[in-house]
């Protein structure tokens, strides 16, 4: 198959088009801007619709409208722009409307900067908008995986009638790597719920407004069961040198790429270490940890944040072993030698620090 050398953001956009996305609404913000630029050039060429909205808020409700008509639709932004979309994300989830949302994270809080960060984990996985809802959150760690997960994201969104978020940092969005575009899967999806006109059938009404508490609870319990099904079926992760590991690193995205170098060096020094890389941040891959609870001596989470995913790791380890943490923030990436030093201080010099 043919390989292309592409920037991550542009590969995301091309993969979305190949996955059947024909509607894109967004507003430019770095470091995700190449996505909207690519869509502006290419969407009309494939018979699709591109529109730069007047704001991020307008863009997410345009996504709502296109999704409500049964179309494959995407938007992308970076951190502060995703914050403005939160109400719309809650509305999409409540009305079970499939869509793909890309967040190429920038630093924060506030306006922040363009350096690499992973500080939007809580916003993505815990529900940044109001009410009890979930997004399926996919975390790539290469340009190739960005393209693969975009295609998977559209399928997951349609299968579960739920918004899907691709969560990546600025390094992945801006870096160039060879990529192969896989053939999109042909899945048959019933979209009889879509608002496509009511000639010869009952009207479809898309709304999440409940005037009666009993109806509100019924809907909430239904969504809760749906999320339980997603949690059971869609956990994804990668294991690296886990066959004999006594200590486990946990990292995702760019941090996981860096941690692999630290794992390789520590193994050369005789340490039995491995890596679990969550690919689904929600549902968090709990199943990866269950077989480890009686054999692992310690865990170490590496993030480019003040400590967010580490909370989910601690919940799943549930006190069976210590959980150390190392981070860099504000756009600074952790380096392998720093990670190794933290590991040695945590587990070879008197326990967890």
Describe the structure.
The protein has 2 domains: 4-188 and 207-233, 3-Layer(aba) Sandwich (Rossmann fold), CATH 3.40.50.970; 237-347, Rossmann fold (3-Layer(aba) Sandwich). It is built from 12 helices and 14 strands. The chain has helices at residues 8-18, 33-42, 56-68, 80-84, 86-94, 121-125, 143-160, 170-174, 213-233, 253-268, 309-317, 336-347; strands at 4-7, 23-26, 49-52, 73-77, 99-105, 136-138, 163-169, 176-179, 237-240, 247-250, 273-278, 280-282, 298-303, 323-327. The protein has a 7-stranded mixed beta sheet, sandwiched between helices. Strand 10 (247-250), helix 10 (253-268) and strand 11 (273-278) form a beta-alpha-beta unit. Helix 1 runs parallel beside helix 7 (143-160). It is globular, with a radius of gyration of 21 Å.
What is the arithmetic mean of pLDDT?
A: 95
Distance between the termini: 48 Å
Estimated helix fraction: 25-40%
Note the total helix count.
12
Question: In CATH, what is the class of the largest domain?
Answer: Alpha Beta
Under CATH, the homologous superfamily of the largest domain reads Thiamin diphosphate (ThDP)-binding fold, Pyr/PP domains
Main beta sheet: 7 strands, mixed
Would you count the extended β strands for me? 14
Listing every helix as H and every strand as E from the N terminus to the C terminus, the arrangement reads EHEHEHEHHEHEHEHEHEEHEEEHEH
Query: What does the radius of gyration come to?
Result: 21 Å
Strand content: 15-25%
Integer tally of domains: 2
Query: What is the third-level CATH name, the topology of the largest domain?
Result: Rossmann fold
Q: Would you identify the CATH architecture of the largest domain?
A: 3-Layer(aba) Sandwich
